[in-house]
Amino acid sequence: MTMMTGQTETSSLRVESDARTHEGRVRELNEDSYVAREKDGFWAVADGMGGHEKGEWASEVLTEQLGSADLPSDFDGACKVIAERIYAANDIVYAEARERGKQMGSTVVALYTQGRRFAVLWVGDSRCYLYREGALNQISRDHSQVQEMIERSLLDPGDAEGHPMGHVLARAVGVQGSLTVDVIVDEIQPGDIFLLCSDGLHGYVAEGEIARLLSRADPQQTTQALIGATLDRGAPDNVTVIAVMFTEPTILSIPQPATAA
């Protein structure tokens, strides 16, 4: 298992984050990978697919592209660069897949923050959740066959869990020559906790349990507990989690010393 922990202050908000990945109890290879650039306000999770070493390579192409991205100082420009790096990874993986004659690819979900704004960019079924004021909200929407059926009113959301098409992706990086990256932009509130995760978490741990563990409001304890909850359920897949918490910084007032009369 690998992990990365940090704490930063940016534009009047304190940021604390922790990232962990685990191969699980069944898989020999870990096809998940992640990016944790706390000082840049940037995190990402990628979940490779294709079996053997192909999925591992595909997810690493993504995180190498994102991890080395030179992000400009303006918010919109940084989001554009992140999307461009995802498109670049798509070109690399798709070209390799065609050359080998084998399908390979990866999901990706990325969180970029600057000041009190955030952007979530994603392809596939790796997710971004936002825990705010005691409620867990899924920010991203899975690019999966099941989600498409739900959106077309062909499947009731209550029947989605355990559906045989549950892990069939409708969109992934490297599977086709062209790609669409979805983006959501909104405002950060003090106390917000973001969770990026692969389906090794949300596929086996209920959202109610995820919310309960996020309520600890400590990124390191939260990621440890989330990985532990997955392992307790057999962890048949690789699992990667990143927790990012925003709080108001402590403000100290230092009065000027009195001068002698």
From TrEMBL:
Residues 15-26 have a biased composition (Basic and acidic residues). Residues 12-246 form the PPM-type phosphatase domain. It holds the Pfam family PP2C. Residues 1-26 are annotated as: Disordered. InterPro entries: PP2C, PPM-type-like_dom_sf, PPM-type_phosphatase-like_dom. GO terms for molecular function: protein serine/threonine phosphatase activity. Residues 1-14 have a biased composition (Polar residues). PANTHER family: PROTEIN PHOSPHATASE 1L, PROTEIN PHOSPHATASE 2C. This is Protein serine/threonine phosphatase PrpC, regulation of stationary phase. It comes from uncultured Sphingomonadaceae bacterium.
